[in-house]
Design brief:
The protein has 359 residues and is mostly helical. The chain contains 16 helices and four strands. Helix 7 crosses helix 11, helix 8 packs antiparallel against helix 9 and helix 9 packs antiparallel against helix 10. Bound molecules: zinc ion.
Length: 359
């Protein structure tokens, strides 16, 4: 689409302010800067999560753009798992560790069972994975039972009770009951609150937190997702690597719902942060201090090519915001950013992105 500038950009994109006006904004003051496109219109959100080759601001892994998930990955899931895995193969390097290991196992299995559909293949060795999961669970529980903690008889009685409940939840309750791990950890967390021996119960809690989960253990992944149909299983392998909008200041803390408060993280890191303050989050994820620079470098590279319009202040605002939120732990270098200085001649709107080229 060609735009005749004599009729004014604003008649085509009324939400976009002329550049001169934007340059007058104070780029370092996140409170006063507003962006032209509101979230309702989804433009920045889609634009940011669809940037190709974008590293996660936390783990630094190249993410899968959101638009990959907008259409079915394969047209028909009744085909063999072998065919589906061939399509998923191109995302293999972007998968997280557990998902990638599951994917590789499925590839091996599919060689022996080339005609099987994905759901059946996934369930092929369900009992093997279930047994493995139970062995790991049992090992952790007996380790706690065998350890001598320096606690009072009252506290020991409470601990014994929690261990008894754990065995009940893990080995007596039905195999299909969900959220078992979550319930067990909750029980041990409340022990930590109830009992006076904080250090000892912190030790117990960190031991029980080693219980395998689908996020960190291949066997648990197979057990947890075995009921899913082929389509959902294919998505499950990719989902944790999906690019998603992360609010630097959480919405629950009245963080702005626009790109002045957005960074992009993979689903896995995004879920792990939830609304945790950054100082606490960086203790769990110190890799973010380095990787947020990789993220910003790619954003700057993309903005410098003028592939997204209307985010002129973004690098400055996010640099300032992350510095404030992390007490200076994250200190981004945005010196390579070339802020646009004049109105572009031509806009091409495609895939939710504003691509700008010179005619
Ligand atoms: Zn990540």
């Amino acid at each position: 689409m060609k735009i005749n500038l004599s009729t004014g950009i604003n008649s085509y994109f009324p939400q976009i302010k002329p550049h001169k006006q934007q340059l007058k904004l104070q780029p370092l003051n996140a409170d006063t800067v507003t962006f032209g496109v509101s979230r309702k219109e989804k433009n920045y959100e889609t634009a940011m999560t669809n940037i190709p080759q974008l590293p996660c601001a936390c783990c630094g892994k190249i993410m899968i753009p959101e638009n990959v998930f907008e259409r079915p990955i394969v047209k028909n899931y009744d085909i063999s798992a072998t065919e589906i895995l061939k399509v998923l193969k191109k995302y293999e390097t972007r998968m997280h560790k557990v998902e990638r290991n599951v994917f590789r196992r499925l590839e091996k299995l599919s060689k022996k069972n080339p005609e099987m559909n994905l759901h059946d293949l996934f369930n092929r060795k369900r009992y093997y994975h279930l047994a493995n999961t139970e062995i790991k669970q049992l090992k952790i529980v007996s380790e706690i039972e065998k350890t001598d903690f320096n606690i009072s008889p009252e506290s020991q009685a409470k601990l014994n009770n929690a261990l008894k409940n754990t065995r009940q939840i893990m080995f007596v309750e039905g195999k299909d009951v969900l959220k078992k791990r979550q319930r067990i950890i909750k029980e041990f967390s409340s022990l930590l609150e109830d009992c006076p021996e904080k250090e000892e119960f912190q030790r117990v809690l960190s031991m029980i937190q080693k219980l395998p989960s689908s996020k960190n253990d291949v066997d648990s992944f197979f057990v947890k997702y075995s009921p899913l149909d082929s389509e959902s299983l294919a998505y499950k392998l990719l989902e944790s690597s999906k690019a998603s909008i992360e609010h630097v200041v959480p919405a629950s803390e009245n963080g702005a719902d626009n790109s002045s408060n957005y960074i992009v993280m993979c689903r896995k890191c995004n879920n792990s942060r939830s609304s945790m303050p950054y100082e606490e989050f960086l203790v769990k994820h110190p890799e973010m201090i380095k990787n947020s620079q990789k993220y910003m470098d790619r954003i700057i590279n993309y903005l410098n090519k003028q592939y997204i319009f209307g985010m002129d202040n973004y690098p400055f605002i996010i640099k300032k915001l992350l510095e404030d939120e992390t007490n200076g732990l994250i200190h981004l270098d945005v010196s390579k950013y070339r802020m646009p200085y004049k109105s572009p001649d031509l806009f091409i709107r495609s895939n939710g992105l504003y691509k700008i080229t010179k005619d």
